[in-house]
Amino acid sequence: MAYSKTVWTARIGTFLNKFLKTNETSTSVELTNDPTITTAGTPFSVDNMNKIEQGIYDAHVVLDANINQNVKSTASPTFANLYVNTINLNGLLLFMAPSSTILSSFASPNTRPFGLTFDGTNLISCDYEPGMIYVHNGVSSTILSSFASPSTTPSGLTFDGANLISCDNSTNMIYIHDGVSSTILSSFASPGASPTGLTFDGTNLISCDFDLHMIYVHDGVSSTILSSFASPSNNIRGLAFDGMNLISCTNNPSMIYIHDGVSSTILSSFASPSSNPMGLTFDGTSLISCDDTVDMIYKHKSVLAQYI
User: Fold this and answer.
1) In the 8-state DSSP scheme, what is residue 190?
2) Backbone angles phi, psi at 71, to 5 degrees
3) How far apart are CA 53 and CA 134, in angstroms?
4) Which of 149, 114, 155, 107 is nearest to 131 (CA)?
5) What is the dihedral of CA 212, 250, 165, 78, to 10 degrees?
6) Spatial CB neighbours of 189, under 8 Å, sequence gap ≥ 6
7) 102: Cβ–Cβ under 8 A, 6 or more apart, which residues?
8) Which residues make Cβ contacts (< 8 Å) with residue 91, sequence separation at least 6?
9) Distance separating alpha carbons of residues 18 and 63, to the nearest angstrom
10) In this predicted model, what pLDDT tens digit does every residue of 15-32 receive, in sequence order?
11) Residues 130 and 184 in one domain
12) What whole-number distance in Å separates Cα of residue 114 and Cα of residue 120?
């Protein structure tokens, strides 16, 4: 709901504190304000003060509603798993930004978690050794199902609203799965020789390369590259998209970076929970990361921040 603001004007005149004394007795006197007014000004009234109170209340209703529920993006009508945690509060753009604070954590299914994605219901992870993909029950350590990856060293995952997409560090290939299954619909070569992370922004696949320290924006889900830019630091490992900004992680140094949209510009960064962050995803409310040194999966807290 739009708030119609009141433009307050000052009361202007002379003798603003002048009073006319009448009906004086030994016990009382009547004082009547007697200035010369040139501009009346906005009255300090019950109605005006209640309007301010109502505006503050309405703003908090909108703010609380947006914090407690996710607004799905219309960026792609066929993509059901893209969330935009933004609030436009009378022109002030606020957004829910991932932070270093950890809400919860649990052990990964195996010893080398490399990639993460979220299909709208369940977390999906992959393990570099022994080359397995795991479907979790929601965002938990409970595994609903698992299957072998297309090759021996899966290094990244994403979900485009219909199909799981994986990449492999040994074959340098990107694979389009049939839904969330081991069946492969198609595949193509990755832009670099060492793909380590994937995400999907509602329109285009985004991949990264560990050796070249590059991030690539694909044309849809294809091998055609629309644009590319250098990663924030060396040894880029994982990518995620929160509906507004690209998020990446590197292990030299061990950092997580919030990009400005899908660009090389960095809005903020923070240290990863452990020394070797590998995979990232976003579940609609929280960033999720994994580390293959401690074999853990972390759910991060989102905090309200102002977009500048």
Assistant:
1) -
2) -100, 115
3) 51
4) 149
5) -110
6) 172, 173, 174, 223
7) 273, 298, 299, 300, 301
8) none
9) 46
10) 667 778 888 888 888 888
11) yes
12) 20
Per-residue pLDDT tens digits for 70-86: 444 433 333 334 444 55
Written as six digits, the tokens of 16 are 């603003």
Tell me, yes or no, whether 223 and 298 share the same domain. yes
The residue to which tokens 């590059």 are assigned? 214
* Mean pLDDT, residues 187-193 taken together: 95
Which whole number is the average pLDDT over 150-169?
94
Terminal C-alpha separation, the chain? 23
Is there a domain that residue 99 lies in?
A: yes
* Burial letters 278-303, b for 16+ CB under 10 A, else e: bbbbbbbbbbbbbbbeebbbbbbbbe
Q: How many C-beta atoms surround the C-beta of residue 33 within 10 A?
A: 11
Spatial CA neighbour of 206 closest among 32, 86, 195, 301? 195
The pair of structure tokens assigned to 229 is 């830019």
- DSSP sequence for 37-101: EEE------HHHHHHHHHHHHHHHHHHHHHHHSPEEP-S-TT----EE-EEEETTEEEEEEEEEE
Cβ neighbours of residue 32 under 8 Å, at least 6 residues apart?
19, 20, 22
Q: Are residues 20 and 101 in the same domain?
A: no
Cβ atoms of residues 214 and 195 within 8 Å: no
With 0-12 CB in 10 A as exposed, 13-18 as middle and 19+ as buried, what is 89?
Answer: middle
263 lies in some domain: yes
Q: Which amino acid is at 79?
A: F
Q: 87 in a domain, yes or no?
A: no
Its domain, for residue 111, covers 95-306
Give the span between the Cα atoms of 5 and 85, in whole angstroms: 26
